[in-house]
Amino acid sequence: MSVGIVLVSHSAKLAEGLAELAAQMAPDVTILPAGGLSDGSIGTDYDEVVAATQRADSGDGVVLLYDLGSAQMTAELAVESLADPSAAVVADGPLVEGAIAAAVAAQSGKDRKAVAEAAAAAGMPEDLEPAEPAAGGGDEIELELRNEVGLHARPAAVLVRALSAFDAEVTVRLGDQEADGHSVLALMSLGARLGDRIRVRARGPQAPAALDKAKELVDGNFGE
């Protein structure tokens, strides 16, 4: 089981498209769109949000994200109406970036609180920082991206999910920029493409194993 995710939007097409995108990065997570009104027009449908929240809950709870202010109100009212309101939480974060971050966190087995925090923190600029010279006490390898899309969307999510299994702090560097290896959005912000050489640095008890896994994924084109 994993935390479910509900995307509350004024637009059915927006919610459905985002759910489809997020599902590519979190195949084992229930991600349900709840957008638009029942007649197909723009708006939010309270009954649909309640139903989606109930369907998304497999036992580990649900995180709801929203696009605009009135969608937030609808989502909060839906949560309050549940038999157990504590089973769901409305995350205050950007809809698109938050959905991606929440999906990856849920896929990695994080609990409801951690998934909501990932959504709320999504897109923060401090995730991407100027790279510093490699310091002692860590291991580092250089890898060449040979997959067609580089470190974008699904490959970034695959890397983050894999690295979450290791007790290690991991960063990925491209040129003069460095990103947290546990943040999909930060990795995507690097803009690493086919043919780019990235440097992966790890520190901690399982640093060598984390680097071995990163090399395995890059060499295997992230399973593409």
TrEMBL record:
Which PROSITE patterns does the entry mention? PTS_EIIA_TYPE_4, PTS_HPR_DOM, PTS_HPR_HIS
Q: What are the recorded Gene Ontology BP terms?
A: glycerol catabolic process; phosphoenolpyruvate-dependent sugar phosphotransferase system
- Where do the PTS EIIA type-4 domain residues begin and end? 2-128
Q: Read off the SUPFAM superfamilies from this record.
A: HPr-like, PTS system fructose IIA component-like
**GO terms under cellular component:** membrane
List the Gene Ontology MF annotations in alphabetical order.
Answer: phosphoenolpyruvate-glycerone phosphotransferase activity
EC main group: transferase
What Pfam families does the record tag this protein with?
EIIA-man (PF03610), PTS-HPr (PF00381)
> Where is each HPr domain found?
138-224
- Identify the Gene3D superfamilies for this entry: HPr-like, Phosphotransferase system, mannose-type IIA component
- Which CDD domains does its entry note? PTS-HPr_like
* Catalysed reactions, semicolon-separated: dihydroxyacetone + phosphoenolpyruvate = dihydroxyacetone phosphate + pyruvate
Recorded E.C. number(s)?
2.7.1.121
Q: Which UniProt keywords apply?
A: Kinase, Transferase
Entry-linked InterPro entries: DhaM, DhaM_N, HPr-like, HPr-like_sf, PTS_EIIA_man-typ, PTS_EIIA_man-typ_sf, PTS_HPr_His_P_site
Q: Which PANTHER family match?
A: PEP-DEPENDENT DIHYDROXYACETONE KINASE, PHOSPHORYL DONOR SUBUNIT DHAM (PTHR38594:SF1)
Oligomer and partners = Homodimer. The dihydroxyacetone kinase complex is composed of a homodimer of DhaM, a homodimer of DhaK and the subunit DhaL.
What this chain does, per the entry, is described as: General (non sugar-specific) component of the phosphoenolpyruvate-dependent sugar phosphotransferase system (sugar PTS). This major carbohydrate active-transport system catalyzes the phosphorylation of incoming sugar substrates concomitantly with their translocation across the cell membrane. The phosphoryl group from phosphoenolpyruvate (PEP) is transferred to the phosphoryl carrier protein HPr by enzyme I. Phospho-HPr then transfers it to the PTS EIIA domain. Component of the dihydroxyacetone kinase complex, which is responsible for the phosphoenolpyruvate (PEP)-dependent phosphorylation of dihydroxyacetone. DhaM serves as the phosphoryl donor. Is phosphorylated by phosphoenolpyruvate in an EI- and HPr-dependent reaction, and a phosphorelay system on histidine residues finally leads to phosphoryl transfer to DhaL and dihydroxyacetone.
This protein is called Phosphocarrier protein HPr
Which source organism?
Amycolatopsis mongoliensis
